Amino acid sequence: MKRVFLDTNIILDILFQREGHLFSSRILQMSEDNKIVTCQSALSLANIAYIARKYLPPGALTPTLKQITCLSEILPLTESDLTDAIMMDGPDFEDILQLVCASHNDCDVLITNNVKHFKIGRGLLPSFKMPEIMTPESFLLETAV
Hints:
- The chain has about 140 residues and is an alpha/beta fold.
- The protein is built from seven helices and five strands, in the order βααβααβααββα.
- It has helices at about 10-15, 20-30, 40-50, 60-70, 80-85, 95-105, 135-145; strands spanning about 5, 35-40, 75, 110, 130-135.
- It has a five-stranded parallel beta sheet with strand order 3-2-1-4-5.
- It starts with a strand and ends with a helix.
- The model has no long low-confidence stretch (mean pLDDT about 90).
């Protein structure tokens, strides 16, 4: 079964019903239907908490985070993830951490709305298995074929 890593922005799309959230929601539905396995990193939860507390009413953050943890497998960030991400050159260190976490956990695809943030300029390690980087819409179009 295909392992699909969800970038933080995908969960935020769904949570706040931002533009494109219907595509992201359909990917989660595929996971609920056991067509794919979805994963996200522990870093995503920290980032979501930081952003969501600004917009959610008092007392809503904890139940929201509990609900998010049920959406997909939560992957830890390891020392190896940090070391490898430091060795790579990309436009956004946080996104490179996500990419390394996805790779180290055998994810086939990384779904994001910021594809350009996952372009690695140098430092690609020999053992690094690059997951395919796709938008929610392109992933759904490809899997519908």
